[in-house]
Predict the 3D structure of the following.
Amino acid sequence: MEQSSNPATEVVAESAKAQPEEEKTTIEAIHNLMPEMRETQNNVKTLREQLKDVMEQNDEYRVLAEQIKELSEKRLMAKKALLDDKDYQKISADLDDERLKLKDLQEILSHYLVSHYRETNQTQVTDDLGETRAVVVSAKIGKAEATK
């Protein structure tokens, strides 16, 4: 059996040899999934717009939406009045501090959980109260980076 020499085939073969089999199939799966994700995102956007159009054509919905808008404006005015209240200001500031602290603690815990997963390859951890909790490892694709 005679092998023909095709430069394109050789480049693909060289590229395949350079990547481990598992990595190659994973990156191929990622590449295969991306177009379907973009299409689905576009479909979701289109369907949202269609749903909004249908809702706006409904008389009852339009009346309720207008009432909600008026109440939202009244709520905003009441909230502005609360901004002058010293008790409200103190509690609001305390709440903001606690939310920021919680966010920081969650980020720190996330880093520790990732480290624990890397060290043990376990997706469960026993918490300080003795309860077994699942470790949820999550990843998502970010925005495209500009190429130089």
Notes: DSSP finds four helices and two strands in the chain.
